Fold this protein.
Amino acid sequence: MWEAIQSNIRRSRAIVVVMAMLLILMGALVGGAWIGSLEGAVVGAVAALMLWLILLLVSMSGGDQLILMSAGAKRIQKEDAPVLWNVVEEMTIASGLGTMPSIHVIDNEMPNAFATGRKPEKSAVAVTTGLLRRLNRDELQGVIAHEIAHIKNYDIRFLTTATVMVGAIVIIADIFLRSLWYGGGRRRGGGKGEGQAIFLILALVMAILAPLFANMLYYAVSRKREYLADASAARYTRYPPGLASALRKISGSISGHRKSAKQSTARALAPMYIVNPLQLSAKGGSLFSTHPPTEQRIAVLEAMSGGAGWLDYENAFKKVTGRDCLPASVIGAGETVAMREARVEKDPKQSAVERSRAATDILDRFAGLLLIPCLCGVRIKAPAGTQHTSLKCPKCGRRHAIPRAGEPSAEGQAAGATEEVPQTLTHKRQGTGWDSFECACGRAHQLSPAMKSGRIRCPRCKRKIEITA
Amino acid sequence: MFPTMIVLGVLFVGFLAVAGWAIGIYNGLVGLRNQVKNAWAQIDVQLKRRHDLIPNLVETVKGYAGHEKSTLQAVTEARTKAVSAEGVGPQSAAEGELSAALGRLMVVVEQYPDLKANQNFLGLQEELSSTENKISFSRQHYNDSVMTYNTRTEVFPASIVAGMFNFKQEEFFELSDEAERAVPKVSF
């Protein structure tokens, strides 16, 4: 992995330099064409760089939050979606990422996922509820591993820098071309005419070609990075079929609802998703695709029969496309890495129902409903603002304490609540039958008749609670 | 006079370049070695997490399947052993035993539908199976880190710097105990 990151960083730098030169050249030619002298060219180049810096600063400050917000992603805690949380934690460990990314859920039935964050220490992954409903654990693991690979490989930072640079080039080209329509620039008569004419022609050529070239460069790198993230995901999970089957489900589901996918995805966000929802039709892949064709990504992953290492991915890639993919420094010693076995689901239908239910629960929590699981298996949903302190299960008649309305949010909990209340609480058991009580953090606990005394741990605030008879 | 100055200057610049390059490689090696150490520590974190989960699990299962005493006791004992085990060899043997005992417990639990409907138990089950995953992923990451580090110390030219500053090869984590390899595959 280390070599992959190193070569990634080197390559990113080279591409940023090429783009920067393109930008400066563009600025210089436009400046020269307008003012008609070498000084003009210098002024133009400096202005172009300034424009880029300003755009970069804007995109770097608070860009992540903006992206998450515009995608409608809401942050979740472990108790909202334990399986998703655990899968992210597992992949954080497998990748050796120092800090776990924050986890966000998007209320959208189209299955998809993306990652954001300028540095690995402060990053985020977001998945849609559709994804949580459709993918089993192995598939979810593959998707999350792919996103964490993007974080680990510094892809997001690079793509932000590059996007902004392409944007700056496009803006300058646009301004120049428009200025030609309206009065042909501020041309002054006199001896400079000839030099200015040369500048003008060159600038015109640049204004047409540079945005195309910059975009192509950007897309080429973006595609390479998707492959690298797929290879990394295979290596982290040691199970390439998981990601392959996830990609198949995602692209199948999006192409089934292409119209609503187009409506519900912001254009600017589309390239960030694991499958670009706006570019499914490009079957063979074109120079202007942000992602390689999904069919090909799946075919490569499925061709990895021998193992899950870099070399295995490279061999599979060669078999499918006849080309090379990963840089030699990544493959390095070129060992094959053994694949793990598939996780056995005892009852796939049942677990699909459970997944779907869990996804609905997340949405209910977002909507402010309280979820109280009863021991008889019924899950009672109560509105947050209710005045009652307890409610009765409609099926078995057990009483449940309702967690207080306006309970501390996750942030508030981390900030201060733990300091006021002792770490270990005690609860004196009421009678010998079913008993329910509230933890200091407001979570309701159920005690079965068999639980006479002992210790439990509150899953929300992690306090230990001593049960005494 | 002038030619010697130029030669000396060139030599000096060359020396600076080589020194800078060596420092870069040295720092890279230190970074990789720290990564190996962190990865090793991560395995312990996950094992500890499993130890912490077990009392809760045993307590919950006891409520429904109290007469499965021997199985529950085996888990508790294996846990105690694993917590107190010291040294890489005994520790991995004890952890292997714990995994096996937990596997047996999970087979027993299958016979108690009430227990399987208990939300608390389901939560614990998810935690436990995920912790098992985390243990194996942290071992996997340790081995990946060792591989990267070892390759780096072997490959020319970094091998020169590694030799000069005594960067030793690290050992891979391997399941030394045959018993642990033979742990019955149980899906939680």
Chain B touches chain A at residues 32, 35, 38-39, 42, 46, 55-56, 59, 62-64, 66, 117-120, 123, 126-127, 130, 133-134, 137-138, 140-141, 144-145, 147-148, 151-152, 185, 187 (CB under 8 Å). The CA atoms of residues 18 and 24 of chain B lie 10 Å apart.
